[in-house]
Prior knowledge:
Helix content: 25-40%
Strand content: 15-25%
Distance between the termini: 15 Å
Largest sheet: 8 strands, antiparallel
Number of helices: 9
Number of strands: 15
CATH topology: Beta-lactamase
Order of helices and strands: EEEEEHHHHHEEEEHHHEEEEEEH
Low-confidence stretches: none
Strand order of the largest sheet: 2-1-15-14-13-12-11-10
Shape: globular
Structural class: alpha+beta
Number of domains: 1
Amino acid sequence: MPKPSLDRGVLLLARGDDILMSRVTGAADADSAAPCTPATRFQIASISKQMAAAAVLLLAERGAFRLDDPVSRWLPRPPSAWSGITLHHLLTHTSGLGHWEDYPMIDLAAPAEPDELLGVFAGVPPLFAPGAGWHYSSPGFVLLARAVEQVAGRPYAAFLADEVFAPLGMTGSFAGSGAGRDDVATGHEGGKPVPSWDLETVSMGAGDVWCTGADLLTWLDVPRRARLLGPAAAAAMIAPHAPTGRPDEAYGYGWFVGSLAGERAVHHSGDNGGYKAFAGWFPDSDRRLVVLTNQAEIDPALLKAELE
């Protein structure tokens, strides 16, 4: 059978510090026919949660946060049902808050007023008591980004730019809307451009970051080489804090931890409207794999094929 191919986007595979494969292909925008290049920025979707986790851990290292702080300390008018939810619960998806399908009243592509969005989250009862289960929750990471803003005293996107991307040399990365930016890929579905989700408020902290392939490969050095964070915080990011219910898999702080393609891995995928993404580090072979595409459809066998 033919090997699965990437039709539109960037694929990078490294072993140690050596690049084994670098593939850039397809159009960044079907309407303009502008090609994808190494400088093209893609939405990394839920991989953005790793940057939110890093922001929280940076502030914790500075003494501004404790991971057992109740989230209610950092949010306006939180409901009493959130009183036992801590930053640790949000980071590990053990807060009891739901995912987007649990909030059908939210339009992911429509702008929202920040406090009104929190009110919508607050209006849906938690699925379980904090720490009593595991349920993937993008809204939980939106709350983390709001907490970072409150403590840092500046917009979340600015904090990432100054405290996360700049120190790592991720010069092609940013958070928030891509409007007016150069070298941004347009999301596609069925071969046609689709509107972006709102990344300023609705997906802030949960799916709001844009990266080049090279920048996302650099990002994997945060756990691999304890860059940006101290050794203890870097180790905490990829510790198996919470079983997900799937065999041999747990969740750390923004990372899935377990076996992937038959090898120990720390990784995350992303899926925004018109975009798919994957970033993973395989410690035993010291391989790093990044896939970014601006199309909704991707062969699920692609990642496994590249790792074999």
